[in-house]
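User: Please fill in residues for this 301-position structure.
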């Protein structure tokens, strides 16, 4: 999949196989990298990156939270992404900016160590199989909170929390996990935000539930409200998802992925619900440039 692709590393375009770092690189040893996940979609004018500037803003916020000094500006990184897509002639792809401590010392502290920046872009399809939706398990692993790690940051080490939840679910035959916060309310999936539908109202956990404030989540809230769907952010009890009419994940990779069941309890009638279907269509119209109301979210390549 990556054969023949170019990547960007510290200002240079390289062949994918030529972008190398030592095996003892600090961020590989300690999970001290930061990253973003961004998608580009084909439209009538060619290809556009979805909410590029919002993703880059969050990337810089993560760097600030983790006290990581980036030597490139937001515009330089955005332009490098666009140049990379043109060079690789990718019309639909997943884009991964990744900043890391490019130092092979054994010591834990990254203070004063060199920060490198990598950008890759690869073809990417569906993250989770859709069909009637994902079969999910409520994880025994709790979602981290800001007293443990900065949950508003998209940092590599944070995702060990997600990894153990996903591995537990997969090992038991499920597609994905659902994580609870310390307060017992639903937080999110390992790599996705979550929505439920009850009596025609779209509901999603608030920031106070220790979620990563997803850009796709924000997009869905704004799209839903634009088409008249009542949307609220509030705490969701664990058992409330069992009696929801619909439920779905959202995220850059997941896009909108219906949830068919949780803990072997079927959600609604077990089929993709009307609101989920409507939002999926609306979202795809937006990312493919077919909705003028949200055209400002697209950065044309």
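Assistant: Residues filled in for all 301 positions:
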């Amino acid at each position: 999949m990556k054969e023949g692709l170019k990547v960007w590393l510290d200002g240079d375009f390289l062949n994918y196989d030529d972008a190398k770092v030592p095996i003892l690189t600090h961020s590989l040893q300690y999970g001290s990298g930061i990253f973003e996940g961004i998608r580009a979609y084909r439209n009538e004018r060619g290809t556009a990156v979805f909410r590029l500037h919002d993703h880059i803003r969050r990337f810089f916020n993560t760097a600030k939270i983790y006290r990581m000094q980036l030597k490139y500006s937001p515009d330089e990184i955005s332009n490098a992404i666009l140049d990379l897509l043109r060079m690789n002639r990718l019309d639909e792809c997943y884009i991964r900016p990744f900043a890391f401590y490019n130092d092979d010392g054994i010591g834990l502290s990254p203070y004063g160590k060199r920060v490198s920046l990598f950008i890759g872009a690869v073809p990417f399809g569906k993250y989770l199989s859709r069909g009637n939706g994902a079969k999910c398990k409520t994880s025994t692993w709790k979602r981290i909170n800001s007293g443990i790690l900065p949950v508003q940051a998209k940092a590599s080490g944070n995702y060990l929390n997600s990894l153990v939840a996903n591995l537990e679910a997969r090992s038991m035959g499920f597609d994905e996990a659902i994580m609870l916060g310390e307060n017992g309310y639903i937080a999110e999936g390992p790599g996705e935000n979550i929505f439920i539908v009850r009596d025609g109202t779209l509901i999603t956990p608030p920031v106070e539930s220790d979620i990563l404030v997803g850009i796709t989540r924000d997009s869905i809230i704004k799209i839903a409200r634009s088409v008249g769907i009542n949307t609220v952010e509030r705490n969701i009890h664990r058992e409330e998802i069992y009696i929801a009419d619909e439920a779905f994940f959202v995220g850059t990779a997941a896009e909108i992925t219906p949830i068919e069941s949780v803990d072997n309890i079927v959600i609604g009638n077990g089929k993709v619900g009307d609101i989920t279907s409507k939002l999926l269509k609306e979202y795809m119209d937006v990312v493919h440039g077919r909705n003028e109301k949200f055209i400002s979210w697209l950065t044309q390549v």
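For context: Residues 6-122 form a domain with the D-amino Acid Aminotransferase; Chain A, domain 1 fold (CATH 3.30.470.10).
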